[in-house]
Amino acid sequence: xxxxxxxxxxxxxxxxxxxxRRVDLTQGGLRRGIFMLAWPIVLSSALQWVMGVADVKMVGxxxxxxxxxxxxxxxxxxxxxxxxxxxxxxxxxxxxxxTGQRDHAKVSxxxxxxxxxxxxxxxxxxxxxxxxxxxxILRLMGADDAVIADALPYMQLMFAGxxxxxxxFILGAILQGAGDTITPLLILVxxxxxxxxxxxxxxxxxxxxxxxxxxxxxxxxxxxRALGVAVATWALTSGRFAVHVAWRESWALHxxxxxxxxxxxxxxxxxxxxxxxxxxxxxxxxxxxxxGGAAGTAAVAAFTIAGQIRGVxxxxxxxxxxAAMTVVGQNCGAQQLDRAERGGWWTTRISMGxxxxxVAIYVAFARVLVRAFTDDAMTLAVGxxxxxxxxxxxxxxxxxxxxxxxxxxxxxxxxxxxxxLLSTTILSPVIAYILALNLSMGPTGVWLGYVIxxxxxxxxLGLMFRSxxxxxxxxxx
Length: 477
Description:
Elements: H1 30-60, H2 64-100, H3 104-140, H4 145-160, H5 162-177, H6 182-204, H7 214-237, H8 255-289, H9 293-333, H10 337-364, H11 366-371, H12 377-392, H13 394-409, H14 414-438, H15 443-467
Helix pairs in contact: 1-2, 1-6, 1-9, 2-3, 2-4, 2-5, 2-8, 2-9, 3-4, 3-5, 3-8, 4-7, 5-7, 6-7, 8-9, 8-14, 9-10, 9-12, 9-13, 10-12, 10-13, 12-15, 13-15, 14-15
């Protein structure tokens, strides 16, 4: 990428603060550095998974319709969240590369502009669109009236409070790009505890609190994330951590920085949108394959439960994707391209190795794990084989995430987009439809279509990273 834009000038006299908790991946042992960077991200991802499990587990006491409501509404909500992937990806890559260059002034400037972009995108785009189209999206996904009754208030509350989720997202990306993954972890611990406690209060109506059912889970998210924003804002403005964003510095819009951030991050947002739309299609195919009604609700609930269980390894894959972005980004910024390449392959190997352990657990304990979420016989009958089949695709899924992160860290965010469009958006749903409906395999065909698509995605991304085209890009100038 040829880049002539300048980053917003830093305030005169600005000095870099001591960087505590920051991992410098441009020197020292590479594998050790990746481990030191990655373990807090993996643990943070596990905590994110716990929050998702808590939502599904708690609403599971309300019945399979409640589980299906959380699954469908959550997928629809995160379809809108991909808008933030553009900002967060561009931010993390630029922060990582400027950190590798030791240019603290530009790191701070990128952070300020990213915060402004996040607030603008949320309040002007995501929240109003989500509130307006929630019901139509649920109908499009095939939700029946019983599911919509629970899903609609949950989804609308999530959109109303999305500013807190988005700011948590971007503030964490800023710190991770600079190599500080421990501070976001500690903040997430507090979010987790608050989330689960608020779920308990509002879902079941404990003490003076109203019994809100599925909507109570949304209130748990909103309150806990608001707390997280307060703490993360203090961390960034205190001058005690890897990035210092002083209030007295200029907060004027700097459109060249916006352009550079979005140029890097937009393909990732489009990829996320395509991926979530493909899951929307998967939900539709499921309801068709199960002939709708109670069977269709059970199939959607089973897919939701299997997704929550597998979430621990998927979140670890997302964590390693973030680690790959940082390790490749810092070393590209420092012009250490061979080291950047080694870092990309190592994060991929670590991701896939971890996933093999998860696969063994999912397959061996599928019945126990699914039963932990529901006692509904129809959902159990579909959910247990779903978990075992979907588990087979875990190594390909998380390995592909790591390779995509490595490419993004170098600034090549278009290659993962093309790979995802081909494997996830086109091939997975088409194969699932053919297997489930044309070959009469039912929900099993949907699970197999997903696995085949993920495997093809890994192969495509591996070839793209090995080609080395990303080494010729120059973005942090």
